[in-house]
Automatic annotation (TrEMBL):
SUPFAM superfamilies: Acyl-CoA N-acyltransferases (Nat). This is GNAT family N-acetyltransferase. PROSITE patterns: GNAT (PS51186). One of its GO terms (molecular function) is acyltransferase activity, transferring groups other than amino-acyl groups. It comes from Cryobacterium lactosi.
Length: 158
């Protein structure tokens, strides 16, 4: 399986967005999934952004995107792994793919935010070398992370 670059509006992304909305509603309360709609789909388009999905015989396994914050920083958003495929390394692989795309586009750092009810994500980002930073987005109680693409690899630290 390889990642395929697609538009956020591609049919392969629909299961990802639906799953993400359901997950946010389950973890943070009814209506929390509406935050999936807080960024215009065009922000994930080239030449400043990208969105990728991993497919297994037509099933959306994982995906996520990057969008420009400024000339040197890109944000990872809409990252999700199908529950049937979790705990198999797809999220780590996705982060490495997105970091590679960010490098190709000339960015120096990637940022992302996650919530308190996603302990798996918090652990993953720390394990992959992301450093916690001050929150920068609109979400209350979000935990923000940053990864320098210049001097930090995206390989897991042991």
């Amino acid at each position: 399986m390889d990642y395929v670059q697609v538009a956020l509006t591609a049919p392969e992304v629909a299961p990802l967005l639906t799953g993400l909305r359901q997950e946010y509603d389950a973890r943070y309360g009814q209506g929390a999934g509406e935050s999936v709609l807080d960024v215009d789909a065009g922000e994930f388009d080239g030449p400043t952004g990208a969105f990728v999905v991993l497919l297994d015989e037509g099933t959306t396994v994982a995906g996520g995107g990057i969008r420009r914050i400024d000339d040197t920083v890109v944000e990872i958003k809409r990252m999700w792994t199908n529950p049937d495929y979790r705990r198999q390394g797809y999220a780590s692989r996705l982060l490495r793919e997105l970091a590679g795309l960010a490098r190709q586009l000339g960015y120096q750092r990637v940022r992302l935010e996650t919530g308190y009810a996603q302990p798996e994500a918090l652990a993953l980002y720390r394990r992959l070398g992301f450093v916690q930073i001050d929150s920068y987005g609109p979400y209350e109680n979000a935990t923000a992370f940053e990864l320098s693409l210049d001097d930090v690899t995206t390989k897991p630290r042991h």
